[in-house]
Amino acid sequence: MKSRCVLYCLFLVSSLSSQTLIRGTITDKKAGQAVDAATVSLYALRSNRILAYTQSDEKGEYQIVYNGKQDSLILAVAGFNLKKVVKDIANESQTINFVVGDEVISIKEVIVVAPKINESGDTLNYNVERFTDETDRTLKDVLRKMPGIQVLDNGMILYQNNPINRFYIEDMDLLKDRYGIATNNLNPNDIATVQVLQKHQPVKALKDYEPSSDAAINLKLKKSAKGVVLATAQLGAGASPLLLSNELVGMYFSKKIQDLAVYKGDNSGRDVTGELNSLYSLEPEVRNLDIFHVLKPALPAVSQQRYLFNDAHIGTVNHLQALKNHYTLSTNVHYAYDEPKRENSTETDYYLPGDSCLKIRECNFSRLYQNRMDANVELNANTDDFYLKDRIKAEGRWDKENGRIFTGDSIREHLDNPIYGLSNQFEWVKTNEQHMFKVTSFAGYKDMSQTLEVSPVLYDGILPPATSEMAWMKQKARMKDFTAANSFTYGRKGAVVQNYSLDFNVRIQHLKSNLLLVDNTVETAGGDSLSNDLKRESYEWKLHLAHSFTLGSNTNFHLFCPVRYLLVRERDNIVGEKTHASHYLFVEPFLVLEQRISAYLSSSLNYSFSQEVSGIEEAYTGSVMTSYRELLRNDGIRDRQKQHTLWWILDYKSPFSSMFGSFTTYYTHTRSRLLSEYLYEGILMRKSTLQHPNNIQSLFSDFVIGKDLDAIKSSFSLKADYRYNRSLQILQGMISGYRSHAVSLGGSFHAKLNRKVIFDYKIRGTWNKSLFQESELPVAPVCLLSQRLSFNWLPVKELIAGLSCEHFYNDAIRSGSRNMWFADLNLSYTLKTVEFRLDYTNLFNTRRYVSTVFNETGRYYTEYDLRPGEILLRVRFKLL
Amino acid sequence: MKNIFLLIFLVVINNPLCSQFVMSKSTSDRIEGKLKKEILDKASLRCWYEFTQYCLNEGVKEQVVDTFTLDIGPKYSVYYDQNRIMRDSLDRAEGEKLRPRVKLIRQHMTKGEIDALRGQGDGNYRELLSKGETAVLYKDRKRQKATIIDGSITEMYKCMDEIPLQSWELKEDTMTILGYVSQKAETTFRGRRYVAWFTPDIPLQDGPWKLYGLPGLILKVVVDDGLFIFQAIGLQKLDSFPITMNKDQYVTTDRKQIRKLAFKKNNKRHFLGTDGTFSMSFEADKRIFDELERE
Question: What are phi and psi of B95, to 5 degrees?
């Protein structure tokens, strides 16, 4: 026992001896006073690692204990506004006193700024200022850079790869479906925040009854832009030939009144009419029936400005007034005039069985005179328990088109295409704690006439013989369409949200067409086989059951089951037969399974089954000349299609890390009873159908990812998609299996390298291959690549010099260069509120675009005229 | 100012509890920011921390991020939600650069009442998904004491908390945070394990929340393997910026009681107005948060 005690004591002594105790006092250099609360730290030699530390007390004394075995140590004294003092010491107990001086604390500052994106509830707030740089002129330029948001070429905005369902300015819907007017004309410097309202149900009262998976956008303006009139003007002139690009924009946004008026005139290839595109997909309307067309080749795959020979003027006036009791009244008037012309030459090969091809060579010149106007007035009230909307819309279109074709002969085409339409849309919703009542009604009428004149007379065998050289063919058609859709819905909240609705829809169409010979101003009809007089009435009664279940806390299940009874009555006045009535009963289930996997990840699995019968466009049996070399006729057999669609959407969003992604897969299986066949007689094409049940399968997968890299002031997006189609085709009497695959990959990168250089890069590559099984037509895969690189240099704040380069590659081109290059130069200088901008487009003066396109019916080789090198000077200034 | 009183009026008439509400001098001064202030210390450094935690929102696990500010003086430091930066008029010029001014109206409100407020407000309206910490924590490092000020429009509470220096165990690992080489240290405090990263290059023995006592400013803290994270996101030098405490009529309480107070549950905040004045109202929060202190 004793020996144990001795051993323990020895151990204690030895362990005590390995403990180093350093003590001392710290005094102030100036006053000699004790320094309180100074940090004393013991470092290992040649290391910034602290081994032990303490703090001095009120008397300035400290005491530090170290248990390690290092030979030498560093002792440091630091503190609040004290100059750091460092001493090398040996590892032994000792007393070390310090005298320290003052030093103002010096740190590397890291300034915190408001986050670029923040999420609150279902609202994402994008801080516009943080996404804007000196080169951005319109809101569209900035939206493009926001992760999660895409802007398509037609102006449509997508959030997480899905079109938005509303576009608000300060929570009010001024522009409706024409929101391109805002994105193209609002200055990003006037906007504070772009809000994405996720799962946005535009009718507030329906929020708990009809959930929405779509998002809306709301602009929050800066205070400086509210309650004041903002007006800007632009004057632009250039050469050659004489180019003009002028605009006048005025706007006013306040709590009660919103106004936005725009005039634009342009002939420099900048597509101003596109700003008036209607961008909502699900608006009820009477569809246009465009039967005839002037033959045009597919548009070139270069930016539109390179091939658009326009002469456009647009004007739009939009006004919104908040009335009493949450009502708003809005009016929108839009007018567009354009005279685009195109010049091109094409080679078309139609695949025929047995390795044969029909080749058509054409030189084509066309000029469209586009004259369109529409106006609407809407009264709207939208509160938590009440909704009312009534919109009256009137539209007129007076399009004319002239074309000249050289295929050996010289052929003239003239198309006259006026359309007049009037519609009324009414919606009323009332809810209380448990119940919902909804009434909707749409009624619209459209009168569409089309006249296509072709000279000389091409089809001698069909029309009576012409007596003069100056005779021409005249195809007339007129369609009157009345569409009405009415619905009454009752909804009930509870564990299961139930909606029951009863719909009654009517569509009455009357189509008349006639192919005439005009000979010495005398019109001669070409006989009954060249005329149509068809009346089609369809009546639809629909019982719609919708149930929404909440399974657990993260899963929702929606089941829709409409039962539809359709009665179609058709009467062909030419044949003189009795009215033919068909009855159909359709059950079209639609299922949605939504799951919130985590705060970032959500999934939606959907299935739908739908059935459709063919419309009036496949019911006429008299021949119709749809273009100078297409004579189309149906054989009167009605098709009926059944379609299964299965789609899965996976969304990822993390506003904290500014990363957004979405993955979508669609699979569609369509079964139809008829196969269409195109028969060629020379270059004249006829359509006929064959009863042969067939399936069309298609798969489409698409992946988008966008991220903002704040640390290097840049953002990128990547997009990939895959398409697969499988169907049966019938070519000159032979049925052939057809398959096609297409893969496309693309991405964009934007970076502000430093204060002076802004860099943008965009690339997209497509690979596609199609195959006819039986005929084994030799179709080689086609690769397309397009890329755009632009550099902007800002030597001083007021000056921007930009250079951009575009490259296109098409490996299907047999002769000539597969690569196309374009370059543009621009200079912009801002003097107070006046901006001068000089653009030199198409530096290389590339005049022609050459492309080859393959599809299931043939190969199309096109040479397209492009705009030459042009210089344009624009001056933009603030009027108010 | 008219608007502010209108807002209060709305709040008062809409809340049955407030039928007995009498606006005292200190309450009206509190709302208008006219309370006298006691200057505790002068801060020379401000550090911003992002505080990340998780909550259950109707069964779904969500990440919640708040931004806090720590103003450090030689003796005292003050730690508060950065949205409150503008509360003190002294601070206005400084904070204008960073955040809009915030005027607080704290009450439970229904959706309809909030909408009524929206009608009055100047347009902008948003909800914050942050937890919305209302408490201000003053730390007296020398006396090893914290004073927590919290409350609602009707009543302010003061809680004194003894926080002895945490006994930190230094580790060899280092990490660079905001450009500063930081050393690892570990401790346990009130039922949770804390892994902190401090930098000797900023020799201030302070840190976020109730943590302090390392030989350098604490820039990052990971609590219980990531259940809570404090991460420094910004540093700013201050020119003798006063650390002040309102001279108010406080109700004294202790730290366990203050957590239970009803207003803490009504912290889903609604903001109103963009520039200049913000109004703010509270709605019951359905989210369930874990507490940092388990003892």
Answer: -80, -20
Question: Confidence band (pLDDT; 50, 70, 90) for A149?
Answer: very high
What gap in Å lies between CA A737 and CA A733, rounded to an integer? 13
Task: Let me know: does A491 contact A435? Beta carbons within 8 Å.
Answer: yes
The first and second tokens of residue A567, run together, are 């009665």
User: What pairs with residue A825 in β-bridges?
Assistant: A803, A840
Residues of chain A with CATH 2.170.130.10: 117-226
- Residue B229 sits at the chain A interface (C-beta within 8 Å): no
Q: ipTM score of the complex?
A: 0.73
Residue A604's pLDDT band (cuts 50, 70, 90): very high
For chain A positions 101-120, those within 8 Å of chain B (CB to CB) are 104-105, 107-114, 118-120
pLDDT at B88: 37
Residue A500 has pLDDT above 50, yes or no: yes
Q: What is the pLDDT of residues B178-220, one digit of tens each?
A: 888 899 999 999 999 999 999 988 888 899 999 999 999 999 9
> Tokens at residue B231, please?
């991460």
Partnered with residue B241 across adjacent β-strands are B43
Q: Among A495-504, A675-684, A816-825, which range has the highest average pLDDT?
A: A495-504
What pLDDT band is residue A327 in, cutting at 50, 70 and 90? very high
Which residue ranges make up each domain of chain B? 2-289
Selected for mutation to probe chain B from A107, A193, A194 (highest B CB count within 10 Å) is A107
Q: Taking each helix axis from N to C terminus, what angle separates B2-14 and B25-32, rounded to the nearest 10 degrees?
A: 120
Of the partner residues B122, B142, B178, the one whose CB lies closest to the CB of residue A110? B178
Helical (H) or strand (E) element with A670: strand A659-681
- Do the Cβ atoms of A490 and A435 come closer than 8 Å? yes
Instruction: Give, for A572, the enclosing helix (H) or strand (E).
Output: strand A555-572
Question: Quick check: A75 and A22 in contact, CB under 8 A?
Answer: yes
Domain A117-226: which topology? Ferric Hydroxamate Uptake Protein; Chain A, domain 1 (2.170.130)
The pair of three-digit structure tokens given for residue A507, joined into one six-digit string: 């569509």
For the structural domain made of A2-100, what CATH number should be given? 2.60.40.10
Q: A197 near A217, Cβ under 8 Å? A: yes
Assess B95–A contact: CB distance below 8 Å, yes or no: no
Cα distances (Å, whole numbers) of residue B163 to B146, B147, B231: 7, 10, 21
Tell me the range of A544-548, A626-630, A813-817 where mean pLDDT is highest. A544-548
Of A80, A118, A125, which has the smallest distance from its Cβ to B74's Cβ? A80
- Specify the pLDDT at position B283: 56
What is the Cα–Cα distance from A73 to A70, expressed in whole angstroms?
A: 7
* B99 chain-A contacts, CB cut-off 8 A: 114
Write the pLDDT tens digit of every residue in A724-761: 999 988 766 778 888 889 999 999 999 988 888 999 99
Chain A residue numbers touching B236 (CB-CB < 8 A): 109-112
* Chain A residues lying within 8 Å of B216, measured CB to CB: 39, 50
Q: What's the predicted TM-score (pTM) here?
A: 0.73
Contact state of A107 with B214 under an 8 Å Cβ cutoff:
no
Contact yes or no for A330/A318 (Cβ under 8 A): yes
Q: A272-286, A678-692, B194-208 — which one is most confidently predicted on average? A: B194-208
Q: Give pLDDT, residue A778.
A: 59
Q: According to CATH, where is 2.60.40.10 located in chain A? A: 2-100
- C-alpha to C-alpha distances, A147 to A550, A787, B130, B132, nearest whole angstrom: 31, 20, 22, 27
Peptide bond into A748 cis (omega under 30): no
B61 contacts A598? CB cut-off 8 A: yes
Interface membership of A551 toward B (CB under 8 Å): no
Q: Least CA distance to A384: which residue of chain B?
A: B112
Backbone conformation region of residue A645, classed left if phi is above 0, alpha if psi is from -120 to 50, else beta:
beta
Residue type at position A337: Y
